[in-house]
Amino acid sequence: MKHILKYLPALLSLLCIGCTEVIELDLNSSEPQVVIEGSTGNNGDSSIIKISRSINFDVDNIFPTIENALVVISDDLGNFDTLPEVESGLYKSGFSGNSGRTYYLNVLADGKTFSSQSFLPAQVNFDSLKINEVQGSGGGPGGPGGPGGNINHEVIVYFQDPASDKNYYRFVEYRNGKVSTRVFIYDDRLSNGSNIKLTLRGSTGRYDAGDIVTFEMQCIDKPVYEYLNSFSNLNGGPGASSAPANPYTNIEGSKLGYFSAHTVQRLTKVVVP
Amino acid sequence: MYKNFLFLILILAFSSLSAQNKYSIGGTITDQSNGEILIGATVSVKEMPGTGSGTNEYGFYSLTLPEGNYTLLINYIGYQQLEQKIALTSNQQLNFKLGEEDLLSETVEVTAERKNENITNTDIGVEKLDAKEIRKIPVLFGEQDILKTLQLLPGVKSLGEGSGGLYVRGGDNSQNLILLDEATVYNPNHLLGFFSTFNSDAIKDIALYKGTAPAEYGGRLSSVLDVRMNDGNNQKYHLGGGIGLISSRLYVEGPIVKDKGSFLVSARRTYADLFLKLSSDTMINNNQLYFYDLNVKANYRINYKNRIFISGYFGRDVFKFQDRFGIDWGNLTGTLRWNHIINNKLFSNTSLIYSDYDYKVSITRSADEFSLKSIIKNVNLKQEFQYFPAPAHIFKFGLGSIYHQITPGQVEVSAESAIQPLDLQNRFAWENAVYASGNWKPNNRWNIDYGVRFSSFSLLGAGDFYSYDGEGNVTDTCTYSSGQFVKTYINPEPRLNLAFVINENNSLKFSYTRNAQNLHLVSNSTSSTPTDIWLASSKNIKSEIGDQISLGYYRNFYKDMFQVSAEVYYKHMQNQIDLKNGAEIRANELIEGELLMGSGRAYGLELLVKKKIGKLSGWLGYTLSRTERLIDGINSDSWYPARQDATHDISLVAIYDISKRWSVSGIFVFRTGNAITFPSGKYEINGQVQYYYTERNGYRMPAYHRMDFGATYNFKKKKRWESSLNFSIYNAYGRKNAYTIDFEEDPENPDRIQAVKTYLFTYVPSITYNFKF
Questions:
Q1: ipTM of the complex
Q2: Rounded distance, CA A114 to CA A34, Å?
């Protein structure tokens, strides 16, 4: 639904009137904030926590990591693990989750404590992953796709949504083993219990022949879905929110970041020429 | 307390009834050339300065005087004065027809009585415009527009091009009651606010109440914009219209029966999208973007005492982006009205009104093929009496009943879509109001308007109604059957206007008003989009309540050539609504759980110098104001500037009639940039740079300013054929006013983020040919 608003710029450019120009803005500086990004997967996946700091807007994108933090993950059965720092600001262990359990994250960093919890939902798997060649739609201004006339790839995933629960999904794209920064999320609010064919539109653009493309499907809980969804609802642009704000984090003690316990399932395709 | 207040009103109303040998004169005042009624024309008594009456919105006046011989002076701005001697020995019915004055002749006599009305009436925070005034002001694409013209007045703002709507004295754009022939217009914008729904060919008269609106209006917090359509010429048939670069207009009017009845049909369509077809790029020529609208009105005077009117509006916007996405929306209104003159002192108006707004969004090419439709509509029955017991006293009372129906969202899907059909529950509400108000002039010094409106708003079943906890989770669900009362809000809404006339050139005025609003618009985007959502007051959403006090000083200079006013206001608003961060408002049954509540305040100073007489006319306005919100959970629970907050606002409008052929005009506006939220830091999540926000609306957009020029050439009149050419240039010095500011990765250095401004219009010339025969 929200991509409706993304067409507004298209409307404006149809009027042939939208022009852009880079301007200088003098933005305030801000107190550095601790940013925690954490995940615990099931099926033998590991737990990874990244801890960094926010920076002022006008400096380069080099985000300081926070070292020597105490990071503990536990579950509602009393199992717990302390995560060692495997590289600067990155804490990782083999602690893996199970569906139906709640996971707790406790962090002591910069002399402050942070805590969070996340519910690991029941597993839903996707049956297949398709990569199709499509005529580049040109996308027009603001629309999806690349420049007109190109052959692009679209990615479609198929799965059966269970009717019993409210389900929230996230898909993560890996191209040749490298994780993409795009966030694909979906909820069954309008399609509960359906057989779902989901076009991960944003993944269009073109892969190279021989690329190994993997999609990871995650079942996530509602707070994590809302957190990720906030980013797409809250950013700037004519169709976007009138009042951008930080997404509601599920981490107590922090303003930024999130912790997600989720299921993990991956399917891989090799792109044919 | 309110009981006492009502009692006082009744006493005031009937206190002046002790008459000895008094007789009344009543009738209508119309334009002699076309039979259009004149609203606000005055009938005064030469022998008794300060005694007089004005015509109401249906052209009716009433005057009660002791037996005797009098000279009546009938006046209306822009028309020649009429003098009529009468011997009053019995009740009389006198209808007057006025002829337009020649604006260019210097012989127009400037009499204090007719031009200093702004000093002596109780109007405070009221802006009145007539269609002729608006025609001379330059506008975007040459399309005359009353909303754009109103935005040039102090206390009235827009958020800039491409975000339509009026922001009046710190109110939101959803807090204006916008009426077209008494019918609510839910969305007054076409093309995202570049045009308004009001086609100036069909418009007679506009009044905007920024402060205290009369008690017959209710249901919105901030202002009342009352737009009246032309009745149509009851003397001659006319065909007229205009041809412009991106739109054309056509109207036809004429008598049904000469002097008795007339009709008007007026239509308009834009064709900007036809130019898109010229493109060879299929991505461009495959789009649609246009709007059209139609105004229809007919009236018939059965006899002197009875007159009926029927009027309607239909407008639609259509936008289709290739074959993948479409949205269309529009308003539909209809008004059936019966004016009945019971006697020279008592006038009755009965109206049956229908309003409807709907939109439909369709996604047509994707796996999730679906459409979403939403409707808000109401049926309104109103009865009003106007009673004229004495020249110094007018009394109005009436009641109204409105039935609202909101269809928040119906999702329809194609057979293979994974999305399931969804039909959010319809919401029903019944709104009732009784009111009484009066105007009383105890002597030449004082002029008093008083009134009270009692409104009730009841949310009705059938349906499931939810209660929420602080987190927005449903704690309780109650099911009601059809017609069952779910929740009722009753609000007394008193109002008072006082004018103290110091002398014929100076006056002081005061006003207080309380308004309640029970339909609330939620929007989560920068632009005012056609898909914003209306919600009714409920268990979770309380009536919005606004209290406003204002104080004004009015002074005329040089024989009323210059009208100067200074007004200050303070407004407090309760139960204001905002959305949680990232709230989902579309197709969401539990939308009330996504709301945050708070309050608002606004205060300011408005200065206006106006020149209405002579070859050079226009005005200079300045507003100094502040508008703030306090919403639970936003900005650490402290006051922050609302989006429409703009400290300084200057507008200059000048129209110069060079000769009978040429007139030129120019405007200049300057406004402090809107308050906006920009990031104050950044961080990394999921490998992506995200922005860190520290406060709501803590920054300002760059200041908005621009200058426009217009010129009109009137061709020589040939028999019945009249025509003119209008040239205009919008944004004459090409100011690149920011529409939005976005933050993007610097293409030259991916480690930096740069601010990118989008601006819409620089130098928009246009030409329009207008004709009438």
A1: 0.88
A2: 9
d(CA B234, CA B214): 30
Q: Which chain A residue has the Cα nearest residue B410?
A: A190
- Do β-strands B370-390 and B393-413 pair in parallel, antiparallel, or remain unpaired? antiparallel
Q: B634 lies in a domain?
A: yes
Which residues, in sequence order, are CB contacts of A4 under 8 Å at separation 6+? A239, B325, B327, B361, B363, B531, B586
| A19 contacts on B by Cβ (under 8 Å) | 736, 758-760, 762
Last residue of a domain, one of B199, B225, B251: B225
Kindly report the nearest CA distance between residue B756 and chain A, in angstroms.
4
The total number of structural domains that make up chain B: 3
CATH code for the domain in which residue B141 is found = 2.170.130.10
Tokens (6 digits) for B771? 């004709």
Q: Residue B32's domain is classified under what CATH number?
A: 2.60.40.1120
Residue from A27, A35, A180 whose CB has the most chain B CBs within 10 Å, to mutate = A27
Among residues B200, B225, B250, the one where a domain terminates is B225
Cβ contacts of B526 on chain A, cutoff 8 Å? 237-242
- Note whether B238 and B376 are same-domain residues: yes
Query: Is B762 part of the contact surface with chain A (CB cutoff 8 Å)?
Result: yes
Cβ contact, residue pair A4, B327, below 8 Å: yes
- Which of A161-170, B56-65, B161-170 is modeled with the greatest confidence? A161-170
Q: Could you tell me the residue range of the domain that residue B9 belongs to?
A: 2-115
Residue B382 lies in a domain: yes
Domain assignment of residue B120, yes or no: no
HEC profile for chain A? CCHHHHCHHHHHHHCCCCEEEEECCCCCCCCCCEEEEEEEEECCCCEEEEEEECECCCCCCCCCECCCCEEEEEECCCCEEECCEEECCEEEECCCECCCCEEEEEEEECCEEEEEEEECCCCCCEEEEEEEEEECCCCCCCCCCCCCCCEEEEEEEEEECCCCCCCEEEEEEEECCEECCCCEEEECCCCCCCEEEEECHHHCCCCCCCCEEEEEEEEECHHHHHHHHHHHHHCCCCCCCCCCCCCCCCEECCCEEEEEEECCEEEEEECCC
Tokens encoding B172: 């939101």
Average pLDDT over residues B65-85: 87
**Do B442 and B530 have their domain in common?**
yes
Taking the CA of residue A167 and the nearest CA in chain B, the distance in Å comes to 14
Nearest CA in chain A to B323: A137
Q: Are residues B681 and B586 part of one domain?
A: yes
Q: Which of B271, B290, B636, B682 to mutate to test binding with chain A, by most A CBs within 10 Å of its CB? A: B682
Q: Is A199 close to B366, i.e. CB distance below 8 A? A: yes
Contacts of B741 in chain A (CB under 8 A): 23, 25, 236
The per-residue pLDDT for range B551-588, each reduced to its tens digit, is 999 999 888 889 999 999 999 999 999 888 777 777 78
Cβ of B681 within 8 Å of Cβ of A247? The answer is: no
Flag whether B121 is in a domain: no
Indicate whether B268 and B148 sit together in one domain: no
Task: Give yes or no: residues B61 and B143 share one domain.
Answer: no
Same domain, B628 and B498: yes
- Verify whether the Cβ–Cβ distance A22 to B756 is below 8 Å: yes
For residue A196, the chain B residues in CB contact (below 8 A) are: 418
Let me know whether B629 and B709 are in one domain. yes
Identify the DSSP state of B456: E
pTM for this one?
Answer: 0.86
| Pair B261, B234: CB distance under 8 Å | yes
Sign of the dihedral defined by the CA atoms of residues A142, B761, B742, B163, in that order: negative
- Residue pLDDT, tens place only, A22-54: 998 889 999 999 999 999 999 888 999 999 999
Residues 108-167 of A with CB under 8 A from B: 137-140, 143, 148, 156
